[in-house]
Amino acid sequence: MTPIRWLLSLIFVVQMYLAMAVIAVAFAPWALFSAAGARAACKTYCRWVIFTLRLLCGTRSEVRGTPPTDECIIAAKHQSFLDIILIFNAVPAGKFIMKRELMYAPFLGQYALRIGCVPVNRGKRGAAIARMKADVAKGTAEPGQLIIYPQGTRVAPGAKRPYKVGTGLLYEQLAQPCVPVATNVGVFWPKRGILRKPGLAVVEFLPVIAPGLAVPDFMARLETEVETHSNRLMRDAGFDA
Predict the structure, then answer these.
(1) Which CATH code, of 3.40.50.2020, 1.10.260.40, 3.40.50.1820, 3.40.1130.10, is assigned to 59-236?
(2) Residue ranges of the domains in the chain?
(3) Which DSSP category does 209 fall into?
């Protein structure tokens, strides 16, 4: 790691959060009265992050596969904030299942609610799943692509974390197709730390899993496809998972 690369990464991180505040305030009059205004603000922010990440850190990004445009579940590998940016920017009406605590984050929480994100409680497994299903049922009035991270948190490249059955229960409840998403973004934008590495960060939309599978079969297929393709993308980026 050279000092100049670390410094440019620090500049990127600082300006990224400043840009979030500036864009949020600039779009506030529109976003206050229109979900379309809130979504436009979020898309503008995503494009700014993608542009400045390449400009300052040399991290290019690419979306592969076919991003869905109809109502569906998107079940994605989660390695850093970058996969959130790339997935949301690639679909027309993305809305995330998010931790309820994020509702209170400045700017981010308010805009997330305006675009239809679904805050869910955490707790003991049975109670948490029941609450998540109820929260999602209330949140499906606004059509779009429901984005969920089956492992429940960011997972660093090479780390192992189980896939939670809640994704399968939502797949069963909503009876919608599921689009798995693989990624290698954690190789370039780590779970923690300042340094952003140059290279090609990819999110890849994989073939659709049609509704109707039994939950155990769905979960096994989802994990196999996402992990297999994510490992391939990470190998292509020089990381052996």
Answers:
(1) 3.40.1130.10
(2) 59-236
(3) B
How many CA atoms are closer than 13 Å to the CA of 96, on its beta-carbon side? 25
Closest CA to 44 of 60, 30, 33, 58: 30
Radius of gyration, CA atoms only, the chain: 18
Strands (E), 152-236: 178-183, 199-205
Strand partners, 209: 178
- CB-neighbour burial class of residue 80 (10 A; exposed 0-12, middle 13-18, buried 19+): buried
The mean per-residue pLDDT over the stretch 179-184 comes to 98
- Strand ranges, E, within the chain: 59-64, 72-76, 94-99, 118-120, 145-148, 178-183, 199-205
pTM equals: 0.92
3-state SS of 48-60? HHHHHHHHHHCEE
| Cβ-contact 86, 63 below 8 angstroms | yes
- Render pLDDT for 16-26 as a digit per residue (tens, 0 to 9): 999 999 999 99
Question: Are 71 and 145 spatial neighbours (Cβ–Cβ below 8 Å)?
Answer: yes
Least confident range of 70-79, 82-91, 100-109? 100-109
Beta bridge partners of 96: 147
Q: Are 167 and 219 a contacting pair, CB within 8 Å? A: yes
